[in-house]
Amino acid sequence: MEPTPEQSPHHAYPDHWEADVVLRDGGTARIRPITTDDAERLVSFYEQVSDESKYYRFFAPYPRLSDRDVHRFTHHDYVDRVGLAVTIGGEFIGTVRYDRIDDTGRPASAPADEAEVAFLVQDAHQGRGVASALLEHIAAVARERGIRRFAAEVLPANNKMIKVFRDGGYTQRRSFEDGSVHLTLDLEPTEKSLAVQRGREQRAEARSVQRLLAPGSVAVIGTGRTPGGVGRTVLRNLLAAGYTGRTYAVNRAFDEGLATLDGVPAHRSLGEIDEQVDLAVIAVPAHRVPEAVADCGEHGVQGLVVLSAGYAERGAEGRELQRELVRQARSYGMRIIGPNAFGIINTAETVRLNASLAPEPPARGRIGLFTQSGAIGIALLSGLHRRGAGLSSFISAGNRADVSGNDFLQYSFEDPDTDVALLYLESLGNPRKFTRLARRTAAVKPVVVVKGARHSGTNPPGHAVPVSRIPDTTVSALMRQAGVIRVDTVTEMVDAGLLLAGQPLPAGPRVAILGNSESLGLLTYDACLAEGLRPRPPIDLTTAASPQDFRDALAEALADGTCDAVIVTAIPWVGENGEAETGDGQVLAEALTKAVAGGSAKPVAVVHVEIGGLAEALAAASSTAAPRPRTVTPAAQPRAATTATATTARATTAGTPAAQGAAPAPAAPATPEAAASFEAATGPGATTGPEAATSHEAATSQEATPRPGRIPAYPAAERAVRALAEAVKYAQWRRQAAVPGKIPEFLDDTIDEAGAAALIEAQLATAPEPRGRPLSHDEARELLGHYGIDVRPTLPAPDPEAAVAAAARLGYPVALKTTAPHLRHRADLGGVRLDVADEEALRRAYGELTDLLGKPAELLPVVQAMAPRGVDTVVRASIDAAAGAILSFGLAGAPSELLGDTAHRLVPATDRDAAELIRSIRAAPVLFGWRGSAPVDTAALEELLLRLSRLVDDLPEVVSVALEPVVVAPQGLTVLGASVRLAPPPARSDVGPRRLPNY
Q1: Of all helices (H) and strands (E), which one includes residue 581?
Q2: CA-only gyration radius of the chain, Å
Q3: Residues 23-34: pLDDT tens digits?
Q4: Are strands 81-88 and 91-101 parallel, antiparallel or unpaired?
Q5: For residue 658, what is the DSSP state?
Q6: Where are the beta strands (DSSP E) in 372-488?
Q7: Exposure of 618 by Cβ count < 10 A (0-12 exposed, 13-18 middle, 19+ buried)?
Q8: Which DSSP symbol is given to 689?
Q9: Beta strand pairing status for 861-865 and 795-796?
Q10: Mean pLDDT confidence for 877-905
Q11: 715 phi/psi in degrees, rounded to 5
């Protein structure tokens, strides 16, 4: 909304305070500042509030607002007096207001830093988290305006409002005065308030996806009158899958006398349907979508799947249509999958939803699949079906204008029917949030990602999201840091997904190999070595081995404590006539399945060459199907007609035996706390119902005792080994993540954050341009010194005499080097002379330098004291607008610049991150005594990394730092060069109050 002329031009309408939010029940709402145009909306809102809520707000009966009240509540200066409203469909459902006050409680202006705050939420919307969302946003507004504390007077009987303040996580004080509870909240964010905010975000966004995947009723808008077409295909697929809810066909072109279509009620509009419609699948031309969305919004539809194309994939005009589609849907409280989507699938027995264009829905299983491409979605569904794998859920998001991979991670984290999350992504709208959510999800279940459009530097058509300029290798490193299993192809994703969904996680890299082909065993052995595994010599059962021989050998390997995983290799048996016998796949599958039936804690994979029916038989013998539901009491018995009861039924399936064999058990809960939660959730008297389905216990409810799962089969050794290697690395990450790293406390004693901040403020005051400014060598030294990073000084040498004087001051031996940008760090071009021992050598080196490379004014030579010999490294930190602050490390020169051998971690880095950073480059052995050299002081290097990480985390105005070279000696290190750039900090999308992105 725009400000009116009555509002102060000095304080323009703050449109950056506008935000779309997801409420507790999964619906959306819009938060925005209140303006003078809202008088009628405010009066209408107040009329719908109960007398009790009015009494709680004003401490007295207050049936209506006076004209003076309306004027006061709609006229704000957006500094000392601010009002925010939550709207759905353009109408108010909740408001909050603060007024700045002084120490006596009277109205005041800055520098007073306290404000009185009051909320009012419409009774019909109480319990949806409206007040909690408003508190987050009004607190952020207040901090922006220099307010540090909120004061509130609450009647003792107003328990709901007291709970909102108490549960916000802010530091608070309370007292009882004059018959009311006086609350004071410190608005500085705390770890608790951030955890509360992110917990609410997770539950709300997960619920919003759950509402889409488990609707009680579905309407297909745009169902054709004749067979064929997108809408009619979706309707047919819904019916063929056995959807348990109510289904409606909607098309404004239907004849008035048409009552049913394909056996379901047919209507010309949603208004003709007497019952609630939860989900609408829109399959009409793009120009008719706004009309359909409005019809859905006005009749209470909760979510949309928009299959229609013609949006951002068509260019700038389509991108604006897409933005308007999202704005329109969110204004009614609806979330969108699409546009240009392929559809969604939920295989839960209580739902059986196939609202997609996939003609054959996947079997029920334990894999969740999200894809941003319809074509890739088709390929993945086909590949998983062909290999006998089942899915728990499937979302093809198309242009991903609203519901994204981040939302899918929120849902997968707590979905008890999903053991593995597979994602095909072509863009990351919010990389910081993605890595945060992926890290939390990966701590309880594997997350496998394929990233398309890796090298184009742009987003695919239709993906209207910010473009990150960081290299793909950096993106991959950051995903690995978050525990994501990053693979290159969709084939590798299916391979890894099958192993992770069907087998326990390996305890280590030791692999036993057995089979009836020596050659295939050797190929598998070589593949294991190439992937960093530790294979044992292959066991050759010979070509005469029977299925019983395979069973005995596998059982023996599983019982052997010297291996952590087993790969079985098999070729067809050769009969007496010399022809391959292709009918033994079923027999071998039965033998292998019996061998693992005892509940081995080791993963097993099969590599086979042309054994007909083996993969299919293994899939049938032990599938990824979901467990059978527990027996529930009549009170908890599911009814498919409602979303809430569908959630209840799905929650009861966690941790029960599978219909075909058993569900996988990747590992025990990641932490002791998770183990306790797991025990509480699955022990006697465990809760069932929606609460159980949306709890952290549900996310971690995996049995500690491994159970036999589906044995994955692969047509090539390399594919099986690569999948196993990913499982080994993921299992190692998960074990480490159970005990998170720390930021050492000793850093606090040697860091002067206030001094560094003052220096930055002074420097930026001299360069107000948005691009900021680079610091000189001395300025960079001073800034880094505040964080305990000592940079060896340099002295300018504009002529030989100055060089001699500088060397005398520093002491011999010295280094003479140029600092011209085109020669910096280029010893190979002759711009650096080391170990200059005396004045004569210095004058000679100076003359050679200028004769070879140019005049002193061009070379900008400097003199620097020599550092102890060691390994030259480079340490950098930079800010990417999308991904955030990134810490990088590598060896100086060719390893990092030519070969790209650089490691990366997100900031803030922990002690474990720093240790892993220096050990994850390929050239790391150089630091640890390679070829008989002395190991360097890696502890000092780790401390330097932690200090630099702390600096860029504390001071967002530091947008880039390069320490080059950092010479690491056997004792200590020396930073010889430093460059720092300051700029106004870029906007961050991962801090502040919850909000949905607007692209």
Answers
A1: strand 580-581
A2: 32
A3: 999 999 999 999
A4: antiparallel
A5: B
A6: 391-396, 420-425, 447-451, 485-487
A7: buried
A8: S
A9: antiparallel
A10: 88
A11: -85, -5
